[in-house]
Design brief:
By secondary structure, the chain is α/β, with parallel strands linked by helices. It has a domain at 1-123 and 167-197: Rossmann fold (3-Layer(aba) Sandwich), CATH 3.40.50. Helices cover 38% and strands 20% of the residues. It contains twelve helices and 17 strands. The strands form five sheets. The chain has a seven-stranded parallel sheet with strand order 3-2-1-4-5-10-14, sandwiched between helices. The protein is globular. Bound molecules: nicotinamide-adenine-dinucleotide (NAD). Nicotinamide-adenine-dinucleotide is lined by residues 7, 9-13, 33-37, 40, 58-60, 77-81, 97, 101, 119, 121, 198, 200-201.
Length: 353
Amino acid sequence: MKILITGGAGFVGSSLAIALKTNYPSYEIFCLDNLKRKGSELNVSRLTQAGITYVHGDIRSKEDFDSLPAVDAVIEASAEPSVLAGLDGTPDYLINTNLFGTVNCLNYALKHKADFIFLSTSRVYPIKTIETLNFVEEETRFSLTDDQPVKGVSSKGIAEDFPLDGARSLYGTTKLASELLIQEYNEFYGLRTIINRCGVITGPWQMGKVDQGVMVLWIAKHYWEQQLGYFGYGGTGKQTRDMLHVADLYRLIDWQLHNIDQVNGEILNAGGGVESSTSLQELTKICQEVTGKTIPIKQVPETRTADIRMYITDNSKVTRLTGWKPEIGVRQIVEEITEWLDQNNKALEPILK
Ligand SMILES: NC(=O)c1ccc[n+]([C@@H]2O[C@H](COP(=O)([O-])OP(=O)(O)OC[C@H]3O[C@@H](n4cnc5c(N)ncnc54)[C@H](O)[C@@H]3O)[C@@H](O)[C@H]2O)c1
């Protein structure tokens, strides 16, 4: 098999590429990336050492696809992945990459009749609807209840039939618009496609920053003993997310690559689920236990733009169709990331500290 992974020097792209090459040494894997994300440059040598071909290129440029060979599958994992991107009034890079760039990726896949696997996001679900959901405030977190004002949500989390009307951030909109185009290419051009709407994905080699990659940010701040803040929802750190280890995501993508006929055209929510979820407050406790460090955390009651109180993935559909479910929990994720910081302390300090 020949596979192109766009955003292949990013966190998800490089992790998938290296896992694929390790499990299928005969596969030829090409990783295209423009290294926009700070820290992605560290992945280039990891890719090369693993026997993967790194191609410096930009998905915004049609010409950058010309030098690429024909492939059997494209995994589209390039993006400006921050939910805050463009909200300052400068959406060009975001839209040109996440939407028009996806079109270039689709056309390349079409040219070579390659299967197309898309990394979409839970952020396609509208913010205001999520913010009106019924929840209980527990001692350390907010939790969804079963009794809800809209369909597609229960205490298990948010499912694919959650209503889509309403604003969702420019990031979420570029992803949803890409999804719509992918469905057209699937229906009218016969391209085999899968859309994965992922909640928070995390693990070693994520270059966490304030607006993207909260898990690594939280652990790194503990590791280097810096300051953090609980922003919004009263400033108590009860906002909750599910966390998907990238190794769990890999098992799903591996299955999809090799069984695409069984899920061709599907949209699948895929995330850590309730079992692998945490509030910031709970995450702080785990970070303290694993790193042995306690840092100051300021409390800021005002909620930040585009933030949501909680997001949990309901994995029912993906599990029913593929048998996949996540296996790695939050504590193990924190332990693995801490170990990765320890092992790569010097290289990571200028990026994550
Ligand atoms: N990390 C998460 O929590 C999460 C959750 C849901 C969905 N996703 C999606 O998964 C995908 C991968 O995200 P990630 O976490 O690895 O982010 P990342 O920033 O680590 O990786 C994205 C990569 O794309 C590259 N890139 C950006 N613009 C580009 C362009 N114009 N041309 C070529 N390369 C470009 C960046 O340099 C980076 O290496 C994205 O599509 C993201 O939207 C991520």
